[in-house]
């Protein structure tokens, strides 16, 4: 049997019908017959048009769904410290597991991660699976993917959640491919269908214009990468009963094609996802120079600069500053929205902020409906005065 998910048998007549419908350009003509390349995504369109049924798709092996129990989260670590998104996933995993009456698992891969593993137990994990080896100190796709997939095969969780960080977005698809299961990327909401018990994975689609809810009825585990700052962190529990399970690591048994020679630290401005205060600007600023004012206010407050999607689309500021469904989700202590009307897509990325302050000329702007404090006025008059007052206060402190 071919290793490809789709291949062509000797019955092919070379008619070319399949070449015309393939949306990925994954079919070529070789020796007067169709040939499926590695670009194939197994969409199945070629099967429908082949007049002689010469194209075959490999069937996925049936999965015994009842063998899979437990909600597992990847406890991502950086420099041996657990990333905060892991605690958010753990908190959500506890909610989902309670609905399913299943245990909560965490898996952590790295070097010197024992302290982090015990912290996960303190926050409610029933079992924490640890792969600890000096060779795993630096995150690399090959060994991490192999160990995560191995743990899933051994422990058989029904759900596996990964943070939608740069690391999680790289590892998630690789692990899902190894396990031949589905993966819903960049989720903003998770819930359990009370009738089927399936994980309902909700994520923005079509540029954030709609929300799509996806289920994985046949594959296991049900996998999702989840946006950072979407859920509150799991809190320490009284009398934790969880255990740490150390897994054997044999680096010779996992593929590792990359050798890391070293790192060069890059100085970056404070990320909007990490900042306690975010000052965002929208099209209401009227011009790109408005972001200079936003930076002045952010600097005075010790915060970061955010932006609405239209300003990014206009090229006023880089995408990494974008807040909203198609950008980043933030949960700061204070969110200042200047010249932002407050479209639903933007609100979805910041409405969980502790305090929301809006400055807008339009008193009917939707942003005022979710604001803790609203200022109806010209931001070019309001913000400079606010900066001045902050500097006066800081100078007297």
By DSSP (H or I, 4+ residues per run), the number of helices equals 10
Number of domains: 3
Within CATH, the superfamily of the largest domain carries the name HUPs
> Class by helix and strand content?
alpha/beta
Reported by name, the CATH topology of the largest domain is: Rossmann fold
Q: Sheet bearing the most strands, described?
A: 7 strands, parallel
CATH architecture label of the largest domain = 3-Layer(aba) Sandwich
Cα shape:
globular
Cα-based radius of gyration, to the nearest Å: 25 Å
> How many strands?
21
Helix content: 25-40%
Account of the 3D structure:
The protein has 397 residues and is α/β, with parallel strands linked by helices. It folds into three domains: 6-57, Alpha-Beta Plaits; 65-253, 3-Layer(aba) Sandwich (Rossmann fold), CATH 3.40.50; 277-390, 3-Layer(aba) Sandwich (Rossmann fold). Helices cover 26% and strands 24% of the residues. It is built from ten helices and 21 strands. It has helices spanning 17-21, 45-49, 84-100, 114-122, 141-155, 166-179, 290-301, 309-313, 344-347, 379-396, and strands spanning 6-8, 27-30, 33-36, 55-57, 71-74, 77-78, 81-82, 104-110, 127-132, 159-163, 183-187, 189-192, 199-205, 210-214, 222-226, 243-246, 277-281, 304-307, 334-338, 355-360, 373-376. Strand 13 and strand 14 form a beta hairpin. Helix 5 (141-155) packs across helix 6 (166-179) and helix 7 (290-301) runs parallel beside helix 10. The radius of gyration is 25 Å and the shape is globular. The chain starts with 5 loop residues before the first strand and ends with a helix.
């Amino acid at each position: 049997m071919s290793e490809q998910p789709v291949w062509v048998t000797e019955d092919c007549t070379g008619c070319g019908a399949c070449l015309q419908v393939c949306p990925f350009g994954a079919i070529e003509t070789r020796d007067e017959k169709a040939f499926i390349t590695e670009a194939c995504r197994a969409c199945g369109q070629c099967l429908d048009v082949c007049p002689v049924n010469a194209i075959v798709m490999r069937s996925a092996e049936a999965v015994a769904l009842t063998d899979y129990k437990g909600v597992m989260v990847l406890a991502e670590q950086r420099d041996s410290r657990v990333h905060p998104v892991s605690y958010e996933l753990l908190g959500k995993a506890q909610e989902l597991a309670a609905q399913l009456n299943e245990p909560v698992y965490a898996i952590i891969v790295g070097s010197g991660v024992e302290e982090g593993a015990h912290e996960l137990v303190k926050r409610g994990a029933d079992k924490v699976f640890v792969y600890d080896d000096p060779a795993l100190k630096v995150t690399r796709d090959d060994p991490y993917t192999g160990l995560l997939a191995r743990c899933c095969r051994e422990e058989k969780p029904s759900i596996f959640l990964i943070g939608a960080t740069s690391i999680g977005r790289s590892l998630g698809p690789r692990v899902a491919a190894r396990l031949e299961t589905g993966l819903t990327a960049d989720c903003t909401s998770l819930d359990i269908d009370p009738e089927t018990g399936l994980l309902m994975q909700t994520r923005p689609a079509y540029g954030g214009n709609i929300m799509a809810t996806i289920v994985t009825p046949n594959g296991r585990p049900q996998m999702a990468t989840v946006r950072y700052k979407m859920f509150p962190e799991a809190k320490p529990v009284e009398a934790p009963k969880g255990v740490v399970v150390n897994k054997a690591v044999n680096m010779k048994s996992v593929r590792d094609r990359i050798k890391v020679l070293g790192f060069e630290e890059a100085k970056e401005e404070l990320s909007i996802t990490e900042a306690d205060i975010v000052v965002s600007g929208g099209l209401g600023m009227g011009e790109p120079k408005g972001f200079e004012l936003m930076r002045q206010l952010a600097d005075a407050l010790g915060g970061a600069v955010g932006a609405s999607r239209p300003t990014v689309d206009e090229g006023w500021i880089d995408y990494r500053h974008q807040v909203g469904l198609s950008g980043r989700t933030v949960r700061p202590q204070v969110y200042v929205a200047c010249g932002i009307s407050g479209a639903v897509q933007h609100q979805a990325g910041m409405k969980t902020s502790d305090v929301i302050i809006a400055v807008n000329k339009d008193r009917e702007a939707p942003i005022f409906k979710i604001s803790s404090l609203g200022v109806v006025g010209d931001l070019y008059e309001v913000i400079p005065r606010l900066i001045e007052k902050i500097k006066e206060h800081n100078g007297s402190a």
